[in-house]
Design goal:
With 220 residues, this protein is largely without helices or strands. It has no helices and four strands. A two-stranded parallel ribbon has the order 1-2. Strands 3-4 form a two-stranded parallel sheet.
């Protein structure tokens, strides 16, 4: 099923089986796709601002350059999908599954990803300014050159994550798990908090950085 260059503002597609559809350049703003199945879909360069996508399934789909700004994606499953340069500005992604997804150059500024699963996700050069990432699973994620200014990563799991050259100004890492995490080539002195953050001997910190001054906790 192929659709291109159409307007479907506010369309109701709840529970629809749309596996492997080929949809491009559609205007689906304010559409209701809650609990729809779009696994394996080619869904690139569509517009879904303010869409309702609660519990939608986009597994292993091509969803790059798509606008999800202000959309409700809580409990959505986007695992394994290519979301390159898509926009999730101010979207609700609480408890969403984005594991192994490709979010390079995506805009997630001021989005809510609390309790989301970003295990092994690629977020290279992603914009995460002001993003809520508390209690988020970012284990083994790739965050090189990402903009995390003013992001909230309190209690986030960043074990074995790579954050080289990321912008961490004003970010909150309180009680975050930083075991085996690569924070080299970052300016940790610009973060808001690292109090209670857990690190070990394999955590890579910037040269000259003294964790005890930031009340970080070392474990063996």
């Amino acid at each position: 099923m192929t659709y291109q260059n159409k307007r479907y503002k506010g369309i109701n597609l709840q529970h629809a089986d749309l596996t492997d559809v080929h949809w491009e350049y559609l205007n689906l703003s304010q559409a209701d796709l809650s609990q729809a199945n779009l696994d394996g879909a080619n869904f690139r360069e569509n517009k879904l601002p303010e869409a309702y996508l609660h519990n939608v399934s986009f597994r292993n789909a091509q969803v790059f350059l798509t606008d999800f700004s202000l959309a409700n994606l809580c409990d959505a499953n986007l695992s394994g999908s290519d979301l390159y340069a898509s926009s999730f500005q101010r979207a609700d992604l609480t408890k969403a599954n984005l594991s192994s997804s490709k979010l390079d150059a995506a805009n997630l500024s001021w989005a809510d990803l609390s309790d989301a699963n970003l295990h092994e996700a690629s977020l290279i050069e992603a914009i995460l300014e002001g993003t809520q990432l508390q209690s988020c699973d970012l284990e083994q994620s790739q965050l090189m050159w990402a903009n995390l200014q003013d992001a909230n990563l309190e209690q986030a799991n960043l074990q074995r994550a790579s954050l080289q050259n990321a912008n961490l100004k004003g970010a909150n890492f309180a009680q975050a798990q930083l075991l085996n995490t690569d924070l080299s080539k970052t300016n940790l002195r610009e973060v808001m908090s690292l109090e209670g953050a857990i690190y070990n001997s394999k955590t890579k910190l910037p040269i000259g950085f003294i964790p005890s001054k930031w009340k970080m906790i070392f474990i063996t």
